[in-house]
Design a protein that fits this description.
Shape: rod-shaped
Strand content: 35-45%
Order of helices and strands: EEEEEEEEEEEEEEEEEEEEEEEEEEEEEE
Number of helices: 0
Number of domains: 3
Length: 334
């Protein structure tokens, strides 16, 4: 068998001679690029190029031992490899992903650069059960995103001390509907600006009996039979009056230090609060002083000045000509 090559201009012609039968291979290519067969007898450029000792895939100007531009690499069956800064992605928007199906106890440091970012294992060694990794500016393991082997995630910190620790500002995207849910289940979607979402200060208190029998607007008094508990008012001019079941408290305080009782209710003690009122002692108008009524859980207009000391709930902001209803009241116990 004999084989020879002829070159004419940029064209490449390969002639294979086997037992007297000749075949001509034609095509053209770029210097430094590994050719590939594009047919039975034609060749052209492949995605692989060589520049000195560097090999490029998808680039004709490899800048590392292996330079892959905008592609992906799947390495399987690794048992012991050292890839110290050996792989990088070319181009300003270059990126690729490494897949290690069975990677345990490997020695890595700054293994991937994507654009100006890098994946860096936290201590130079990756162990699937104890170590983590960092996504940080290239050749820097001091910032960026760090995932520790214990599950803690740090952003801008090298030693996160909680499941999530951020050294810097946290931003929720505007108009995204984002919110923060706290450990007690409450959700906040609006930042505190110094203005509360409600109009009163309330204290979280225990009530006597079934909590389901209480509702916003109820006038509350001290329960004489159960110290520390409260119940609905049931007699006129009660000096045991303490507040109103708040509809939407701006601030809720709590004197207890133990776990919150599910039967607690917010009792407004200062501020503007919707209040159940009765016209049993005459029509109510803005500015009238309100006291407890004989109707359970309701307030009425106070007219007996001799009985109003310590019995005033607050001042009416609305009108009630007859019957029962709900009006806003400025709660000012006195």
């Amino acid at each position: 068998m004999a084989m020879w090559r002829t070159v004419a201009g940029v064209g490449v012609s390969l002639m294979l001679c086997t037992t007297g039968v000749a075949q001509t291979i034609t095509g053209s290519g770029t210097s430094g690029t590994v050719p590939v067969f594009t047919g039975n007898s034609t060749v052209s450029n492949s995605p692989i190029s060589v520049s000195g000792s560097n090999v490029g895939i998808g680039t004709t100007n490899p800048g590392a031992t292996l330079d892959v531009e905008n592609g992906s690499i799947n390495i399987g069956g690794i048992t012991s490899q050292s890839l110290t800064a050996a792989l990088r992605a070319s181009g300003t928007d270059g990126h690729f992903f490494l897949t290690f199906p069975s990677l345990v106890n490997e020695n890595f440091n700054s293994i991937v650069q994507a654009g100006d970012q890098a994946i860096i294992f936290s201590n130079g060694t990756f162990n699937s059960t104890s170590d983590g990794f960092v996504i940080a500016p290239w050749n820097s393991a001091t910032s960026g995103l760090r995932i520790e082997g214990n599950g803690n995630v740090g952003i801008g910190t090298t030693n996160p001390g909680a499941p999530l620790e951020v050294d810097g500002n946290v931003k929720l995207t505007a108009n995204s509907g984002a919110s923060i849910t706290f450990q007690d289940g409450t959700t906040q979607s609006t930042a505190y600006t110094g203005v509360t979402c409600g109009g009163d200060y309330a204290e979280s208190v225990d009530v006597s009996g079934d909590r389901k029998h209480y509702g916003p607007g109820d006038v509350l008094v001290i329960d004489p039979g159960h110290p520390g508990k409260f119940l609905k008012s049931a007699e006129p001019y009660s000096t045991s009056v303490t507040g109103v079941y708040s509809t939407r408290p701006g601030t809720v305080g709590r004197r207890q230090t133990g776990p919150k009782n599910p039967d607690e209710v917010p009792m407004a003690m200062i501020g503007i609060v919707p209040t159940r009122v009765s016209a049993e002692n005459g029509a109510i108008h803005p500015g009238d002083l309100l006291v407890t009524a004989s109707t359970i859980g309701y307030a009425m207009k106070g007219t007996d000045r001799s009985r109003m000391l310590g019995a005033v709930i607050g001042k009416a902001l609305g009108n009630l000509d007859s019957g029962k209803g709900v009006i806003e009241t400025v709660v000012t116990l006195q």
